[in-house]
């Protein structure tokens, strides 16, 4: 898979660009990278132009020099789209990627054709989650990224799948090890301080897809399904935790393909 780079200020953003047609941007979660979508991209790229982006401090992108907010990461996506002369796109964000998608929707609604939150939420961190962010920062600061990732990754998968998905568990750990410590700490702080964007979800007019894993132990279903209105579609992926793109890629691909067909139809009306 050929990779490209785009500079946003002092930050180098690594990305891939495959297929032709309606533009879809896949945004990975915390301590992940573009490889999270390795099974999804070939399916979506059959009928769409699919971009995958490595966030600041993640994957092959550069380590940021300064602290950043979720909105800064959304602006990275907007800058990339502008450089590629893509006027509008559908954003599909996993976990942290969903928070970024919501920030993008708030700041650049005219650039959005559709939005999907995959194991994510428009709501801010709970008090308990904020405490856990601080614990994560302390863990990385004191012990480095590897022990933190080793503790984190098994929690992302359904307990029913851990033995069957040994390869995927190792893949996610190896991806996580590549995350810079400053990038991981910056992302934890950004997630901790992100505002409530549920009103953005309530006001968006474009097609929206909310996806949960039946066994997701990270984000409860009610925090994903926080708004109910006609342009919002819901999907529950069975036998999946927080990582359906790796646990149940065929099921997630099918759900996303149907959603994107609806997005394209809505554009033509």
Architecture overview:
The chain is of the alpha/beta class and 269 residues long. The protein has one domain: 3-Layer(aba) Sandwich (Rossmann fold). Helices cover 43% and strands 19% of the residues. The protein contains eleven helices and eight strands. It has helices at residues 41-44, 70-83, 96-107, 127-143, 145-156, 166-177, 181-192, 198-203, 221-224, 244-247, 249-268, and strands at residues 4-8, 11-18, 22-27, 48-53, 89-94, 112-118, 208-213, 232-237. An eight-stranded mixed β-sheet has the order 1-2-4-3-5-6-7-8, sandwiched between helices. Helix 9 links the parallel strand 7 (208-213) and strand 8. The longest helix is centred in the C-terminal third of the chain and has 20 residues, at 249-268. The relative contact order is 0.16.
Identify the notable features of this structure and list them briefly.
AB_hydrolase_1, hydrolase activity, hydrolase, alpha/beta, AB_hydrolase_fold, 11 helices, 8-stranded mixed beta sheet, 269 residues, Alpha/beta hydrolase
Give the SSE layout:
Layout: E1 4-8, E2 11-18, E3 22-27, H1 41-44, E4 48-53, H2 70-83, E5 89-94, H3 96-107, E6 112-118, H4 127-143, H5 145-156, H6 166-177, H7 181-192, H8 198-203, E7 208-213, H9 221-224, E8 232-237, H10 244-247, H11 249-268
Parallel strand pairs: 3-4, 3-5, 5-6, 6-7, 7-8
Antiparallel strand pairs: 1-2, 2-4
Helix pairs in contact: 2-3, 4-5, 4-7, 5-6
């Amino acid at each position: 898979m050929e990779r490209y780079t785009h500079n946003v200020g002092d930050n180098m953003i690594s990305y891939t660009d495959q297929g032709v047609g309606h533009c879809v941007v896949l945004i990975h979660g915390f301590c992940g990278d573009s490889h999270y979508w390795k099974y999804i991209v070939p399916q979506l790229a059959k009928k769409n132009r699919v971009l995958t982006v490595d966030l600041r401090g993640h994957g092959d992108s550069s380590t940021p020099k300064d602290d950043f907010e979720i909105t800064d990461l959304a602006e990275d996506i907007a800058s990339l789209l502008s450089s590629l002369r893509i006027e509008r796109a559908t954003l599909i964000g996993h976990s942290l990627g969903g928070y970024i998608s919501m920030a993008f929707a708030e700041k650049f609604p005219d650039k959005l054709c559709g939005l999907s939150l995959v194991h994510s939420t428009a709501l801010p961190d709970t008090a308990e989650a904020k405490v856990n962010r601080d614990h994560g920062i302390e863990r990385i600061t004191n012990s480095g990224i590897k022990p933190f990732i080793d503790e984190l990754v098994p929690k992302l998968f359904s307990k029913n799948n851990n033995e069957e998905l040994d390869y995927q568990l190792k893949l996610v750990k190896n991806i996580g090890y590549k995350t810079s410590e400053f990038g991981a700490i910056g992302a934890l702080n950004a997630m901790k301080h992100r505002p409530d964007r549920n009103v953005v979800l309530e006001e968006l007019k474009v097609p929206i897809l909310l996806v949960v894993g039946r066994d997701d132990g990270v984000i409860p279903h009610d925090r994903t399904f926080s708004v109910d209105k006609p342009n919002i579609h819901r999907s529950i992926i069975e036998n999946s935790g927080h990582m359906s793109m790796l646990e149940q890629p065929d099921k997630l691909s099918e759900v996303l393909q149907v959603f994107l067909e609806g997005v394209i139809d809505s554009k033509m009306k």
